[in-house]
Amino acid sequence: MGADFLLGLIVLVIKCGVVMMVVMTIAAYLVLFERKLLGRIQLRYGPNRVGPYGLLQSLADGVKLLLKEDLIPEGADTILFLIAPGLLTFTTLAVFALVPFGGNIHLFGHTVPLVISDMDIGVLVFLALSSIGVYSVALGGWASNSKFSLIGAVRGVAQMISYELPLSLSLVPVFMMAGSLSLTDIVNAQSSYPFIVVQPVSAAIFFICSLAESKRIPFDIPEGENELQAGFHTEYSGMRFALFFLGEYVNMILFGALMAVFFLGGWRGPLLPGPIWLLIKIAIVPFLLVWTRGTMPRMRYDHLMHFCWKVLMPIALANIVVTGAVMAALG
């Protein structure tokens, strides 16, 4: 019993370390990818001076942010100001513990599942953890003692809480069809076909809400550089400023992974190993998010809320009813 527990603990630590290393590395180079792709879209050069083809730009940016002074505004709530940037990154990384990266592998006579924690209520844990990320925006803006930051925080909280509802409802048909809230079971239920084939409406709603939850254009209302100077993180500098952006890019990867798990068959695919297929499918969402940023303008705030409550919500609810009716008719 003691040996098995120790082995399980070692495997768990290794899994966590590998996932964090891969996710953080991808997030760092996703910034470079975005700057390169936006340069192409906007007919200008992207980063091309630090290392061959600009490949060391992410390292240079990290060093630059580490060397910048970490300022705390006068009158700020120091404790909340210091912890707010890390909340979003922490909760987003925690959700990766639920993502299945492949099937089981056999290692030294033991069966090792390529998932950190396969919970029976994985979907509910994901929704719970993602809702905690709202506090990062709220506390960051409020604790800064700045009116611009506070307005950005209020916008961000309203936006994120609102779009969590259609995002959650878009997943109801998925676990109705899978018969489980476990992410592994949802992937296994797509052995014949990916759910996007029969649930394109749910997939579209989930993608749009992912844009809003990531605070990406056209939903970057909480930042609004031309009206709020940078929104809820106006007063941040150095690595605490970088943590907000790290959380944003990790969030992009997370929603790519969840899009793959819920609608694209997860790690399933021919010829290539499961983790490779998952990475290919994950890459689709960040690419679309960057493409959207380079081509669409920012929405007006009232239009943004109208679109959520009067368009996405009714469609998501109607989709649940139609899915239930079809499943009941088919038996």
Automatic annotation (TrEMBL):
Enzyme class: translocase
This protein's name: NADH-quinone oxidoreductase subunit H
HAMAP family (alphabetical): NDH1_NuoH
Keywords (A to Z) from UniProt: Cell membrane, Membrane, NAD, Oxidoreductase, Quinone, Translocase, Transmembrane, Transmembrane helix, Ubiquinone
Annotated compartments: Cell membrane; Membrane
GO cellular-component term (any): plasma membrane
One function term, GO molecular function aspect: quinone binding
The keyword Oxidoreductase is annotated on this UniProt entry: yes
Role: NDH-1 shuttles electrons from NADH, via FMN and iron-sulfur (Fe-S) centers, to quinones in the respiratory chain. The immediate electron acceptor for the enzyme in this species is believed to be ubiquinone. Couples the redox reaction to proton translocation (for every two electrons transferred, four hydrogen ions are translocated across the cytoplasmic membrane), and thus conserves the redox energy in a proton gradient. This subunit may bind ubiquinone.
Transmembrane segments: 6-32, 78-101, 121-142, 163-181, 193-212, 241-265, 271-291, 311-330
Main localization category: membrane
NCBIfam families assigned to the protein according to its UniProt record, in alphabetical order: PRK06076.1-2
EC code(s) of this entry: 7.1.1.-
Self-association and partners: NDH-1 is composed of 14 different subunits. Subunits NuoA, H, J, K, L, M, N constitute the membrane sector of the complex.
Membrane topology field: Multi-pass membrane protein
PROSITE patterns: COMPLEX1_ND1_1, COMPLEX1_ND1_2
Catalytic activities: a quinone + NADH + 5 H(+)(in) = a quinol + NAD(+) + 4 H(+)(out)
Family: Belongs to the complex I subunit 1 family.
Signal peptide: none
GO biological process: aerobic respiration
